[in-house]
Every structure is written in structure tokens, then in C-alpha cells.
Amino acid sequence: MKTIGWALFATVFIFFFSLMVIAPIISNIGYSSVEGSYHAATHAILVSLIFTVIVCTIMIIEEINIIKEKICDSGDGSCCRKPCQK
Question: Residue 18 has what DSSP assignment?
Fold first, then answer.
């Protein structure tokens, strides 16, 4: 339950961060009309989604590496790329 709470908090934080920081940057690039301002918010949320996916992917890869190290430490080095050092 704690993990779900942190995920919800991070989602809300990223949403407001994208609206307060990324949207003005994108709107200064060339969105000047009213219709463009709607697209600027959408594009800001998409940019924040891309960075969220990148961060989550990095975290998953780190967890996989930790699990691989635990397997190598257990003595069975059959699935490790490098031979286990004892």
C-alpha cells in the first residue's frame, strides 16, 4: 500500500511539474494561439511521461542487476554473464 501511495504522489507531482515547468518552456518555443496552448499542455504531459518511462526503466534494470548479484552470491553462477567470484 505504501508503494501505491508513493506512485500516486509521484504521478501528481510529475503532472504539476510538467504544467508549471515544461509547459511554459514549450509554449515559449512557438505555441502562441489559444489552440496552441492546449497542445502545449498536452505536449508537456507527454514529455514528462517519456521521462517517467525512462526513469522507471532504469529502476527496473537496477533491480534486475541486484537480483542477478544475489543469484551469483548464492553459488549458482549458471545464469551470470561473468563467472561468479568466490
Answer: I
